[in-house]
């Protein structure tokens, strides 16, 4: 598989899997008991999940790879509109858009003359199964999960145990802020040792989102 194809596959994982976890965990309450922390975060997050319609934030994405001489940093805006629209609009180091709309993912990267649309129905189905229709018990049948309190909130670590998931992801770490109870960072480690870290600032749940955010005719 070419470098470009690997990168596109990782974008699919970045968009589909972790942003669904945002929806599950964003409303978790700070009063969760340490003994059953993940179960409580999941359950209470699900209780509030029904009130979450939109999600918008600024992000910084740092990629490390054996193919890179130094980490690559990119910045932009992420927006989610339930039930099935997610967009990453990059502004640095150059403009590009990654849009998920239902079962389709579109990548527009003008500086590289890239415009592609992929069917991601299979990955969306897995996200629905594991993180929307599932339960802590179901998740633990596919991941080793640890949750721990941190000085600024909580850290949830998920290590896949199922072969199909392990082929695309080795480790997922989610940091949740203790005050806002929203995700502040997400770190992914891939089977080849590469990694990607996304940190989120200016997080606004249920904020109005300009419909133009989800258009890919241009990348303005």
What does this structure look like?
The protein is an alpha+beta fold and 220 residues long. The chain has one domain: outer membrane lipoprotein receptor (LolB), chain A (Clam), CATH 2.50.20. 26% of the residues lie in helices and 40% in strands. It has an 11-stranded antiparallel sheet with strand order 6-5-4-3-2-1-11-10-9-8-7. Helix 1 runs parallel beside helix 3. The radius of gyration is 17 Å and the shape is globular. The chain starts with a helix and ends in a 15-residue tail after the last strand. The N terminus is likely disordered.
Summed up, the domain count is: 1
Poorly predicted runs of 5 or more residues: 1-35
**According to CATH, what is the class?**
Mainly Beta
Main sheet, how many strands, which sense, barrel?
11 strands, antiparallel
Given helix and strand content, the structural type is alpha+beta
Secondary structure tally: strands: 11
CATH topology, anyone?
Answer: outer membrane lipoprotein receptor (LolB), chain A
Percentage of residues assigned to helices: 25-40%
Query: DSSP strand (E) fraction?
Result: 35-45%
The separation of the N and C termini measures 31 Å
Overall body shape: globular
Helix segment tally? 5
Secondary-structure element order, N to C:
HHEEEEEEHHEEHEEE
Q: What is shown here, in short?
A:
The chain has 220 residues and is of the alpha+beta class.
